[in-house]
Design goal:
There is one protein chain. This protein has one domain (10-258): 3-Layer(aba) Sandwich (Rossmann fold). Helices cover 43% and strands 25% of the residues. The protein contains 10 helices and 7 strands. The chain has a 7-stranded mixed sheet with strand order 3-2-1-4-5-7-6, sandwiched between helices. It is globular. Bound molecules: S-adenosylmethionine. Residues 7-8, 13, 17, 43-45, 48-49, 67-69, 72, 95-96, 112-114, 117-118 line the site of S-adenosylmethionine (SAM). Residues 7-8, 13, 17, 43-45, 48-49, 67-69, 72, 95-96, 112-114, 117-118 line the site of S-adenosylmethionine.
Length: 261
């Protein structure tokens, strides 16, 4: 499967789902889900969250997961089938910029690490708010790649790489820190936020999450790193792994708001 800007495959998403499980559970709590609710998961990927959400709303409820990647949706449908929730957990191909749902349809809407990919996050948040019922919750989990820090002696390369990831490897790499402002601008009420520092001790995970092979090439093409610096950078991470001392961290934001009555 050829992946557009910044996307992970289903295998990598499963690794991250385990790493971020506590944040996912907090996001379900923040949605105040009850049996029979209708909920939306925007950018659902391979059904990481739609299946657990399906168990929370029960068979009188409805979960709709949307994504624009057909391979993700096929995997999500298979997982819902295997979990026995497919009668009320559905997945459909939709661009997050324009949602084909009636206004005030869902009791709660969520999105998990989608907004970092969006060229127009305001439009998608506005669509989520429109589709949510009055007094319903809107919950977004997203990364702030500006907080990426990787322990290395190559401090200067690391800073340039981290900045390039945040500014250029993704459409909206600083997403996490922007969410409170975006929620206020949508006139959501009862806004709350939590920031979760995520520690990573294997370079492979950060390399996958930042699509490092491609990002490094792009950084060379943009004149941000030289080919020789990329070799040094890769070598320093491989050495840290080999010595068992690799350490990186990045902040993930969870922001919750309520649609005004
Ligand atoms: C980092 S993955 C997160 C998947 C899932 N939410 C999870 O937590 O495992 C981002 C997902 O957003 C989807 N996506 C990116 N841009 C999109 C868009 N404009 N409309 C719909 N889905 C989009 C990608 O296909 C991918 O499945």
């Amino acid at each position: 499967m050829s992946l557009p800007k910044g996307y992970l495959d289903t295998e990598a998403l499963d690794i991250f789902a385990k790493l971020l499980n506590n944040i996912k559970q907090r996001s379900y709590d923040a949605m105040s889900i009850k049996k029979g609710h209708k909920v939306l998961d925007l950018g659902c990927g391979p059904g990481t969250d739609t299946v657990p959400l399906g168990l929370l709303v029960g068979n009188q409820g409805q979960v709709i997961g949307v994504d624009y990647d057909l391979a993700m949706l096929a995997e999500a449908n298979q997982r819902a089938e295997q979990a026995g929730v497919s009668a009320w957990v559905k997945h459909q191909q939709t661009d997050a910029a324009s949602l084909p749902f009636d206004s005030n349809y869902f009791d709660a809407c969520r999105s998990d690490r989608l907004f970092q990919h969006l060229p127009n996050p305001v439009q998608s948040l506005s669509e989520m708010v429109r589709a949510t019922k009055s007094a319903g919750r809107v919950v977004i989990v997203d990364t702030d790649w500006g907080s990426l820090s990787i322990d290395t002696d190559e401090i200067d390369i690391e800073r340039r790489y981290a900045r390039f990831v945040a500014c250029s490897a993704l459409h909206n790499g600083y997403s996490g820190r922007t969410l409170c402002r975006l929620f206020k601008q949508q006139n959501l009420t009862d806004i709350s936020f939590e920031v979760f520092p995520v520690a990573v001790t294997r370079s492979m995970l950060i390399r996958q999450a930042t699509q490092a092979d491609r990002t490094e090439q792009d950084a060379v093409a943009a004149g941000v790193l030289s080919t020789e610096e990329v070799q040094r950078w890769r070598g320093s991470q491989a050495q840290a792994d080999a010595e068992g001392v690799y350490f990186a961290s990045v902040n993930i934001f969870l922001v919750t708001g309520r649609k005004p009555e």
